[in-house]
Amino acid sequence: MIMQKSKTLAINGGKASRTRKNPPAFPGGLALDGLEEQAVLEVLRSKKLFRYYGPYPAPSRVEEFEKAFASATATQYALGLNSCTNALMIALLAAGVQPGDEVIVPAYTFVASAAAVVAANAIPVIAEIDESFTLDPQSLEKNITPKTKAVIPVHMRGVPCDMDAILALARKHRLKVIEDAAQANGGSYHGRPLGSLGDAGCFSFQYHKIITAGEGGAITTNDKNLLNRAQSLHDTGASWRFFSEGPEEKGPYTYFPGFNCRMNEITGAILQVQLKKRDKLIAVMRGHAARIQETLRNIPQIKLRRLHDPAGDVGVCVMFLVESKAQAMAAARAIQAEGIDAGTLGNKHVPDWHIYSHWDHILNKRGNNDSGFPFTLTQRTYSKDMCPLSLQRLESMIHVELSPWLTKPDVEEICDGLEKVLTQIL
């Protein structure tokens, strides 16, 4: 039932809907307990902190995590790295992206998605988002040129992109698809785990993510050649470490000089434990999201975020659209006054690195060196207003953060507060 408008909003002096403090939005971080502690102690006691060797024989925790993570994502291979940013860069290079090639990224994603393209010596092309707040396939198609080599669909804020349309365009134009599942670890698209649909998937284990070791990343793939190239690139070209009898053991192979993006054994040990907790954390957040979405469907003044596959949403937040930026900012202030962890992206005084218009170093074509390379290889230009539909949608959007540590009474208070505010403010 919709709350009566006679209820005084907290922002106007009424009683706040929430009676308890919101738990921090760190699902895996708050799930850390004695199991991770024991795993770390076992690594320390073994004195084997490096995945390839130590003073005494011991199994590699990184390798064990890679096998478990490949299984969890329904892929043949997984490679542990030290960050998702490096995972994206390595995956692009391993997929064959060359200097000056164009890689399409959405207007709404953490800047690392675009920065990884530049790090791979390629040119980021920024495309619009649709009402799911993920890459719009129509904008993707409009931005494809003869120089386009790859696309990075970002499963932003926990929901899958329109992968049927994106994959169809990729096949048509022979593009590599590198999924960015940093914020959607454990999500799915029509029953297939995210990170298993494209040529490669990239994941983050930074502290804000669903499972975490503070930092860390992974690449998943079914392509053995891409895996072999990634192994070489992420480990300074020292790919022989992966073969007990030489490269011929796994077929023809080309070595590449590379970087040092390796995962260490302590990170691998923590992630082994965290991975076992992932699905339970997601199940709780999905339940919270479903309850709040049920409430919001009864409020005709708002439009819920489009979900290309509702069952694949990991439930880290609920997002909805109102009529305008002014409405979004007014409603967000009132919702926050009710004690609910919600906000909007319309305040231009707060630089949000998830919105392309704040990527000044990309928009001004600054490379990672004084020459401006790789932007010296393109005539493409950028501007803060180049994706107007994305800006309009982002400025009219309100998001409600969720945590697996919210209780059912907490969620009911959130529902009551949202009804109370939205039926009066809008």
Structure description:
- This protein has a domain at 34-274: Type I PLP-dependent aspartate aminotransferase-like (Major domain) (Aspartate Aminotransferase, domain 2), CATH 3.40.640.10.
- The protein is 36% helix and 12% strand.
- The protein is built from 13 helices and 13 strands.
- It has helices spanning 27-31, 34-46, 61-72, 84-94, 112-119, 137-142, 163-173, 224-234, 265-296, 325-337, 360-363, 388-395, 408-425; strands at 77-81, 102-106, 123-127, 148-151, 176-180, 188-189, 192-193, 200-204, 217-221, 303-304, 317-321, 342-344, 397-401.
- A 7-stranded mixed β-sheet has the order 1-9-8-5-4-2-3.
- Strand 2, helix 5 and strand 3 (123-127) form a beta-alpha-beta unit.
- Helix 4 (84-94) crosses helix 8 (224-234) and helix 10 (325-337) packs across helix 13 (408-425).
- It is globular, with a radius of gyration of 22 Å.
- The model is unreliable at 1-6 and 244-248 (pLDDT under 50).
Strand order of the largest sheet: 1-9-8-5-4-2-3
**CATH T-level topology of the domain at 34-274:** Aspartate Aminotransferase, domain 2
What's the alpha carbon Rg, rounded to whole Å?
A: 22 Å
- The helix fraction, in percent, is 25-40%
What is the N-to-C order of secondary-structure elements (H for helix, E for strand)?
HHHEHEHEHEHEEEEEHHEEHEHHEH
Shape: globular
Would you state the CATH class of the domain at 34-274?
Answer: Alpha Beta
The CATH architecture of the domain at 34-274 comes to 3-Layer(aba) Sandwich
Number of strands: 13
CATH superfamily of the domain at 34-274: Type I PLP-dependent aspartate aminotransferase-like (Major domain)
Please describe the biggest sheet, giving its number of strands, its sense, and whether it closes into a barrel.
7 strands, mixed
Structural class: alpha/beta
Number of helices: 13
Beta percentage is 5-15%
